[in-house]
Amino acid sequence: MFPPHLIEDGKQPPFQFPVLKFGRSRFPKVMFAVTLDTLALSSFAAVAAITVTAFNLEGVIDTRTILLDYDQQQRDFGREINAQTLRFWLEDASASRRFILTEQIGNRLIADDAISVLADFIADHKSRAKETRTVVWTKGIKLEASILEQLAADYDTDLGITYQDWADLRTLALLTGVTIGRFDGTDGAPLTAPEQALKVIEGLQKLNLD
Fold this sequence. Notes:
Residues 41-176 form the 3'-5' exoribonuclease Rv2179c-like domain. It holds the Pfam family Rv2179c-like. The chain is of the alpha/beta class and 210 residues long. Helix content is 40%, strand content 16%. The chain has eight helices and five strands; from the N terminus they run αβββααααβαβαα. Strands 3-2-1-4-5 form a five-stranded mixed β-sheet, with helices on both faces. The N and C termini lie close together (12 Å).
């Protein structure tokens, strides 16, 4: 039951993950994956877009991308726009990234409104699933969580996600052997939110939840 790639000399450790004892009922009926498209790699990075995916163990349910006014973030709070990251964006061939960076300002939200949209998306899907718990997966707790928490604090807005709600895909990958690609992309988001959700599902399935 323990992931084979973490067992040395074929000896299984004398315990099981709690999830294996409780099975699928341990997990919320809906979880969330969040990715950010940022213009720097720090907690004070300006955020160009937030993408959130609702999912469960059966698959992806819904995804939304929220475009933010990153210039306003810089004017209001001096949030960071890094030249090297901008260069990466401009050289990136991805049509989705070009759209996120160049979409007209009129279609972008001030950060506090964008955070409210994110919180409403999460609350709505929890309500539909009759789920009280909040579990939000990120590629690593340090970057996305810290940026969103700091952005919400800057604009004095309730993020609706507490420190207890974050879950870490890197740790799941270590425990299950799921391949999640590079973590050194200059925008900090080598996986899209739906891709990230599918990796979480793959990892949890490797834990043999049935």
